[in-house]
Amino acid sequence: MASVSTTAPNAHARAMHNDLGREDQTLLLFAHLMEGGKEDDETVESLGKLTKLLTDDVEATKKGEKSITAVIDSDCVDTILCYLDMRQTDVVRGHAALCTSAYLKAAGEDGSKKLSAFFLDRIQRGTYDDYIVAFCVAATIFPIVPDLTSELFLSEGFLPSLGPLMRRKWKSRKVETACLEMLNAACMHSHCREAVQKYCIDWLEEIVDQDTEQVVESMYTTDPDTATQEGSVSMRRHSIHVQNLAAVVLTKLRAVQPDQAPPDLSDPSQPRIQPATTSIEDLSKKFTQMLIKDPEHSSQSSVEGLAYASIRAKVKEDLAGDPQFLKSLVKTLESAPPRSPLMYGALSIFLNLTQYCPALTEEQKRISQLKAYADAVGKLQPDPLNDNEHVSARCKRVFEAGLTPVLVTISKTSSVASLTLIISILNSLSMTPSMRGPLAQQGAVRLLIGAWTNLPEGDPKNMTVRRTAAQALARILISTNPMLVFGGSTPINTAIRPLVHILLPDQAVDTRDLLPTFESLMALTNLAAVDDDTRRTIVRVAWKDVEELLLYNNPRITTAAVELVCNIVQSPEQAEALFADTSKPQAQTRLKILVALADAEDAATRSAAGGALAALTGYESVVKAIAERERGPEIILGLCEDDNEDLRHRGVFVLLNMVACEGQAGKVAREKFLSKNAVEIVKTVVTRSKRREIVELAVQSLKLMLGKE
After folding, report:
1. Which ranges carry the UNC-45/Cro1/She4 central domain (predicted)?
2. Which residue has the higher pLDDT, 6 or 356?
3. Which of 509, 562, 590, 680 is most enclosed, with most CB atoms within 10 A?
């Protein structure tokens, strides 16, 4: 690289810098970075400017300009990568990672070659310093260029060489830490994870199982002069931090392995003494104790380990059954820095504890059963600890640990990834009806509405998250009094659009799940019971979809839609606009559908339709339309004859409204009912019914039909 001399940046230097060409700016920045003794803020500033130059370079080269990567030689790459060293501050390492990512994107294949040469050269040198830098670089770039890094990681002889390094008599904590952080990152890649399992599992187990007292005793036995050697004890045993990191790596390996069947000791080919292995349950207990006893120093490792260990059903059950652990994890989440790995890890544990297995259609269940039968070992059989009963019990314990207020607080500063987990956790908690009221009281409704509103609508990644938020909101609003939930900064109308959003099918799936639609209708029905303003908003936003669902080929959906209509027409404004103005063909059609639904096979649908007609028959135009409709009077009398007293109550209420109507409409109605043997039918209602209000309504109807009023 060309030699460039510069002094510390100042206003004059920055002005000169901006006058330089892109290549000269690049060289000047590298000169700054190569100088020693810089403050962190100066280093960060230079790395930031270099990152911007490299990012802009991608677009510049598309326009035919020469790439600045042509002047970035191996020494320059070495400079950037050395800032990834764990001995640098976190802020410097973070900016160096962004700069490395921008360089690799801009430089393409040439950048990959330089990176590979750097890594292999450092490993070949074999000093502790070189190992630390190489391992730190590999750990950082794994998520950036996984294919390239895994190729380096799996290069011949590399992984087997780590065993002797980690088993050296004299330990280097920084080398061990850097090595384990590299393995930790590598375990995200399936082929690398298999290689770690093959070449590193033994010494990882040794580190985790190290008995400190035994190490010290062995040292004094073999070398009595140990006591005179300064630092000899600490340098010949693995530190607690290193043990914790090894446990995390081991957990990632164990979490993806199927449970091993116990050995058949009757088989002569099996060794009589089985090698001891650290199970994932043992590791989870270790992490649990770490978090409870020393959260200040061990929270990162313990949370990361448990985020993987809690994938297993047995571990979930153990963690959820430990109130002390749950409260410690809630405190850890509450104190975690916003958008940090610690926050995401803690949320991942809570998600694993509370997540229900996805509901399957009947066909999916049959396919699953066939797969289970076809699998000789039966590995595809679901774990009973993951059934709904066990998950519900875990959700209750998590809720009782005081998680919800913390979720509400951290959601205000969370990343989209963390907010996704928060919504999924609340969705699981909302499955239990008894917890819905407390969830609303603790701020879950406001959180869910805010999340649905603020997540960008056009981003495909957010589609599922927004639907999940809306469904959790629907469940909570089904079981709570809206008057106690809304007000102040969260008016009731803010909940309507999220609920309407899940009335429609999810475009991202092939098979429609009707549960969100049903729950949305139920929640909207609850809101529609509040006031006319809410009903007006529901009609304005959702009427087209609600009307289509009245004739849906699922009785529960139809019933829920009719119940919503029943509450909507309690508003005179909506009743008149939608049904009572029979001069409009649409209103006539709607009324015909509602009368037909009062004759549906499903009793709940008949009841809901009867309730709506009870409100609508207060209008003369509706009375006239029903009386003149073919089978209209018969359907109303059918409600009166129903075995269900609630339905009879609605039937005689509608009947009384119609026969009590004044003018020509009332006269037509009375004549129609008399011609359909209504008198005898109503007399039977009087004798059959036990409820006083039904009898009174029936008697009044009889008097009006017989002209005795």
Report:
1. 75-253
2. 356
3. 562
